[in-house]
Amino acid sequence: MKKRIKIFLSILLSFSIISVALCLGVTFIGKDYKETQDTAYKILQITDIHILNDEKKDAKAYKTITEMVNTTNPDLIMITGDVTSEKENMTAFKSFGEFMETFKTPWGFVFGNHEGLDIKYENGEIVDGITIADKEQLSNYLESLTYCIYQQGDKDVDGMGNYYYYVKDDNGKVINALIMMDSHSYDDANEGYDHFHNNQVEWYEKTIKQIAKDVNGDENKVVPTLAFFHVPMQEYKTAYDQGNIITGFRLEEEGCPAVDDEMFEKMVELGSTKGCFAGHDHMNNYSAEYQGIRLSYAPSCDHNIYVVPFRGGQLINIKNDGTFTTQQIIRHRGQSTVTISKEK
Description:
Layout: H1 2-23, E1 26-27, E2 39-46, H2 55-72, E3 76-79, H3 89-101, E4 107-109, E5 126-127, E6 130-131, H4 135-143, E7 163-168, E8 174-180, E9 186-187, E10 192-193, H5 198-216, E11 225-228, H6 234-241, E12 245-247, H7 263-270, E13 273-278, E14 287-290, E15 293-297, E16 312-319, E17 324-330, E18 339-341
Parallel strand pairs: 2-3, 3-4, 8-11, 11-13, 13-15
Antiparallel strand pairs: 1-18, 2-16, 5-6, 7-8, 9-10, 12-14, 14-15, 16-17, 17-18
């Protein structure tokens, strides 16, 4: 009897997700997915996986990720934080890292607010005989992997994992650059989430100009860039409140930093970054336009900690001219394939 109820609920949930998705303009294409001819490079963004170090439970997330990778065949996979919130964080990282390496596809990473530092635990603290790994230890592990492009970055800049990566077409021409930044964890003084620090804003400006000089021979001839981080900037909320929605929806209040930093203003000033990609807020999956920059969430890939309406990721399609489109990817346990939206 219980099995029948479980099957019925699974079918009901499947129909529910289909109904909601259709209202949102999502097209069910699964294994029939084909990239558009003008796409030069594909990035699969995955966020908030929350590995539990439980083989059976973690297999659910791994199955969803595998289905997304096999269906879209990305050129790069970008993980935007919160791989785990477990105190055995190194164990979780090794499980996830070994899994990601099986795809033999380049993959990047930025820290979320949970890795190595949580409300309950401090880096290096010994809990139940387990030493919580700090960001440097986790970084050293990531840098030891064959396909992971993660870099610790300049140690004189706050945070860890501030780095960049060139996107090239089939002829080796740089058509875009990816900027990865550590959005930190908590701001105890202001009772909220932390923000980008001033020396990170300075690093961002220096990096954008260096990329322009390396690629175009002139620091003022900026290259189109996309930025990846975990905690959404305050401008996400502003963009949504002003009704500048491109796609998706908001089902929870944005978990933005307690302090408004100058990162977004610097992005607008330099005119290079055209898209920002975050995670953190598991119930949100919208993209919104604000002052010429698309601010986008990927659907959470959390199967373990939070109850979320959709689980999946986001496909970013970079074109030959450096512009891009996005597609939401969803997989429900009642589906054998993924659900992919139209490009927007």
